[in-house]
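Lab notebook, bench 4. Still working through the backlog of constructs that have no structural model yet. Next entry is a single chain of 350 residues. Request: give me the structure tokens for it.
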Amino acid sequence: MKKIRLKSALCALTVLVMSSSGLSVHAEQTAYKTYSKTVAGKAVNVAEIPKGSMSGYIAIGQNKVGGVQPMSAMAKAFSAKVAVNGTFFNAYEKQGPFLPNGNLINKGELIHKYDNGTSFTITKDGSAQIGRIKTSISATAHDTQHTVGVYGINRKVGAQGIYLYTDRWGKNLGIKSGINIMVDRDGKVIKKVSGEDAEIPQGGFVLNVSGSSSALSRFASACSEGSTVSWKYEVSGLDNNDLMLAVGAGPMVLKNSQKITDMQSYKDEGFTEAKILSNAGARSAIGIKANGNIIIATTTAKVSELAGIMLSLGCTDAMNLDGGASSGLYANGRFISSPGRNLSNILYFK
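Model written out:
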């Protein structure tokens, strides 16, 4: 994707245009534009990113899954031009980790798996898509050609299964239960411990085997020190599954220019709480226009009302992002909408 660089003098220019319709446009001399608009009596702040003009990325709080950080700090650390809050997370944990509740893929790397809801994605060719995806992870012990499914990545372990942790989780696993298999960046098992914490090799990973089924025991036995172990993930559900970026949230509110406002559709995506199903609140949404432009909007509304708002902004497909105190929109070095808490992750463009 082509990146546009402008001289700092031009970037400082801002033109404010007021039209007779009440639309105020902030036309920064950049690859994007921001504006405010009243839709069905609701004030909406918008950032529009032309197709292919900027690349999209994800930043995570304190650069680790489960960390939180001010949105402005993340945006500035990565020189973001436009940023919006990303997926839901366990914001009300007292001590953390504040784990995300959505799929996260950044630069083609799966950071977190959580298939409920809808995902905003960008493919290797730069096209944006919105839809429901399914991720599957597998690990292979190459000495025995034993392949197993991995239940989760960079999340809390369950009572039974194999869980994978990359250095996006941090330096140490912090988990003593089960068997921890440490694998370096070259795919070599460097250590295997039981009932002990494990250090996550930089560029490598740790597999935690929890439970005592015969299949799990056979896999753990095959991962002897010095042996080769690898993992991979696959994505299905979209027209183009060659993803460089994905941020999962939802529900979907607009598909092929058709509004999705019924509660059952939201429940089918896994949403059951009133704050998603029926309550009004601060909202962030992202959508795609027919020409491929990306629309990011913040407002105060019910999730079901986002359908009409995003359609009015020209989108054919759109979805809800995390909202409430998480809702924030940042552009050109300042907040257009300010979040009320530290965030687990953001989606940004530059």
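Notes after review: The radius of gyration is 21 Å. Residues 1-29 have pLDDT under 50 and may be disordered. Flag for follow-up if needed.
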